[in-house]
Specification:
Layout: E1 12-13, H1 26-43, E2 44-58, E3 63-74, E4 78-88, H2 90-107, H3 110-116, E5 123-133, E6 136-145, E7 153-160, E8 166-173, E9 181-193, E10 196-208, E11 213-228
Antiparallel strand pairs: 1-10, 2-3, 2-11, 3-4, 5-6, 6-7, 7-8, 8-9, 9-10, 10-11
Length: 254
């Protein structure tokens, strides 16, 4: 039996500020990230996009499955999916890809989103480096969970130094999501699209303890932002950015 799920999160609105601010402390970077995300979350009302899922399992019952989905998000907590096509292993589609979508719906609940927040309540942060690239400047932060539960990661996040949005994440769950899993590695990317920071790619590899490997690749395209709310967030609002639920990126392929 397989469960391999990944939650789409982390939307944001690109700012018009100048280049990244030099000499910021780790606390200042995290605070700016949280504050900027509160503004972004308040302004984004909804979007829809297309996704392409590709799943390969190499092990006892090797198989491949693909699924194309249209996803619709309505703030603050509604996700809807329409399956456009599916092919390959029916077992992988039924036990993995379709369950992935349901897990993503469930993760929109407020009580679950609190557990997924990138915030000082859930993580300890330290500045690893500042990177200057053709795509822009980034603060690279090490993130270590304050407690080992199924919702948190250990790894690194790349924070855009201009917009203070999470542009990239690499890590693994703080705890193994299953006895059958020996290791899970996750790479997640966001980009500024039509003024909003939205997920564009996910790649995760799950190593199975008794042998085997599950590789999940998700591509996001054709974004359309449906509307914006033009309100001002409450004073002091610090709604945090969130990462996909690491407990949903796991495999039990037997």
């Amino acid at each position: 039996m397989a469960t391999l799920c990944l939650l789409l999160c982390g939307v944001g609105l690109a700012s018009s500020s100048s280049s990244g601010q030099a000499g910021l402390s780790t606390d200042a970077i995290v605070q700016k990230l949280m504050t900027a995300n509160a503004v972004r979350a308040d302004r984004l009302h909804g979007y829809h996009c297309k996704r392409k899922y590709q799943l390969d399992y190499h092990g006892v019952f090797g198989g491949h499955a693909e699924m194309q989905v249209e996803a619709t998000y309505r703030a603050p907590d509604q996700k809807e999916f329409r399956i456009l096509s599916q092919s390959g292993s029916k077992l992988l589609i039924r036990q993995v890809l379709l369950k992935l979508l349901q897990t993503e719906r469930d993760a929109q609940e407020e009580r679950n989103r609190k557990e997924l927040e990138i915030s000082p309540a859930n993580y300890r942060f330290s500045l690893d480096s500042t990177q200057h690239t053709p795509a822009g400047d980034f603060y690279v932060l090490d993130v270590k969970p304050r407690s080992k539960n199924k919702y948190v990661y250990q790894g690194k996040i790349w924070v855009d130094a201009q917009d203070f949005a999470v542009a990239r994440m690499e890590g693994s769950p703080a705890t193994n999501p299953s006895f059958w899993v020996s290791n899970v590695s996750i790479q997640y990317q966001w980009a500024s699209i039509d003024g909003f920071w939205l997920p564009i790619h996910n790649y995760s590899v799950t190593q199975v303890r008794l042998g085997g490997r599950a590789v999940l690749d998700i591509e996001y395209s054709d974004y359309q932002v449906t509307s914006e709310r033009r309100t001002t967030p409450p004073k002091g609002a610090t709604k945090s950015p969130i990462l996909p639920d690491p407990s949903s990126v796991s495999a039990q392929p037997h």
